[in-house]
Amino acid sequence: MTNVLLYAVHLFLFPGLLFIVVMGLLLAGIDRKLVARMQNRVGASILQPWYDFLKCCGKETIIPRHARKGLFLGAPVACFVILISAALFIPVFGGLSMSFEGDVVVILYLLTAAGVAIIVGSAASGSPFAGVGLSREMVAMISYELPFVLVLLAVGALCGQDSAYGVTFSMDEIVRWQTENGSSLLHPAMIPAAIAMLFVIPCEIGMHPFDIAEAETEISEGTLTEYSGAPLGVFKLCHCVKMYVMTALFCALFLGGLSTGILLVDALLEVVFCIIVTFLCMTVPHAICARFKVEQVFKFYWTFVSALALISLLLVWIMR
Questions:
Q1: Can you give the pTM of this predicted structure?
Q2: Of 196, 171, 180, 166, nearest to 91 (Cα)?
Q3: 3-7, 115-119, 256-260, 262-266: range with highest mean pLDDT
C-alpha cells in the first residue's frame, strides 16, 4: 500500500503532473515578464499564462465545418499526455523519475510525437493557414532533430564510457555518472554540445525567433489558426509544459548530480536552473532577434548547430 501511495505521489504531485504543469506555467510567465522588461515594457503578470488557460477553457469551442472532429479535438489531449509522459522520464535533482534503460530514446520519440500531434490537429482543421503552418512545423522538426540527436549521442558517449557498448541511453546512468565525476557541463568536450542544446530548445518549443509555424503576422497563428476554447487552451498549456520538459532535460543532461539529498532543496534547485536556462535560450533571443525565415532555420540548424554537437561527439571519442 505504501508503494502504491508513493507511486501516486510521484505520478500526480512531484515530479509528476502538478509539478510539471505549475513549472511550465511559471516558466512561461517569467519568460514573458523578462522579455517585457528587456524591451522597456511593464509586461503582464507572471500568472498571465494561467489566466489565459482558464479564459480559453471558458470560451466556446468552434469546430470548422470541414474539420475531422475526432482528430481535431483529440490532438490537443494527445499532445498534453505525450508531454507529461516525457517529463516523467526526466530525473529532477535527487534522481526522482520513472527512468529505465533506453529512456533517452523514448524521450526523443515522445517529443517528436508531440510535434506530430500538432501537425495532425492542424491538418484535421482543413484550414489553408494551418496547412502552411504544418508544413513549416515539419521543416522545423527536420531542422532541429539532427543536432538534438547528436547532442544526446555526445552526452551518452561521455557518460557511458564504462558500459558494454561505450554509450548509454539511460537518464539514470547519465545522472549517476555526473554524480561521481561532476556535471558534464564542466567537461571541456561538452561545451559545444551544451551550446547546441541551448539552440535546440527554443526551436523544439516553437519560441521566437524560431516560431515559424505559428507566425501570427504571416500566417495567422499557423497550426493553431482554427482552434478556440478549451482545445486552444490545452495547446497553449502544452507549449508551457514543453518549456519545462526541455529545460529540465538540459539540466539532467548537463547539470546532473547536483542533488543535496533534501527533496525540497532539490526541487528549488530544479526551479532555479530551469529559469536560468529559459532566460539564456528563450528570453534573450526573443527580446533581441527578429523572426527567422523558414530556409534560415533549416540552414542554421543543419550547419552551425549540428557542427557544434558533432564537435562534442568527436571530442568525447578522441579524449577517451
A1: 0.91
A2: 171
A3: 115-119
With beta carbons less than 8 A apart as the criterion, state whether 274 and 27 touch: yes
What's the Cα-to-Cα distance from 284 to each of 13, 43, 159, 199, rounded to whole Å? 31, 15, 30, 12
What is d(CA 132, CA 123) in angstroms, rounded to the nearest whole number? 10
CA angle 184, 185, 188 (to 5 degrees): 90
CA distance 25 to 275: 12
In the chain, the number of structural domains is 1
CA distance 61 to 51: 17
Distance (Å, whole) CA 13 – CA 8: 8
Structure confidence by residue, pLDDT tens digits, 77-126: 999 999 999 998 888 765 556 777 888 999 999 999 998 998 888 888 87
Q: How far apart are CA 1 and CA 58, in angstroms?
A: 38
Task: Please tell me the distance from the alpha carbon of residue 191 to that of residue 38, in angstroms, as a whole number.
Answer: 27
Burial class (CB in 10 A: 0-12, 13-18, 19+), 297: buried
Look at residues 316, 180, 181, 196 and name the one whose alpha carbon lies nearest to residue 250: 196
* 222-233 pLDDT tens trace: 778 888 889 999
For residue 248, what are the domain limits? 2-318
The number of angstroms, rounded, from the C-alpha of 173 to the middle of its chain's C-alpha atoms is 21
> For 57-72, how does the pLDDT look when each residue is reduced to its tens digit (9 = 90+)?
888 888 888 888 888 8
Long-range (24+ apart) CB contacts under 8 A made by 50-55 are: 50/25, 52/233, 52/236, 53/25, 53/233, 53/236, 53/237, 54/233, 55/233
Q: How far apart are CA 132 and CA 222, in angstroms?
A: 7
| CA pair distance 312, 184, nearest whole angstrom | 11
Q: What is the rounded distance in angstroms from the CA atom of residue 94 to the CA atom of residue 105?
A: 22
Question: CB of 306 within 8 A of CB of 146?
Answer: yes
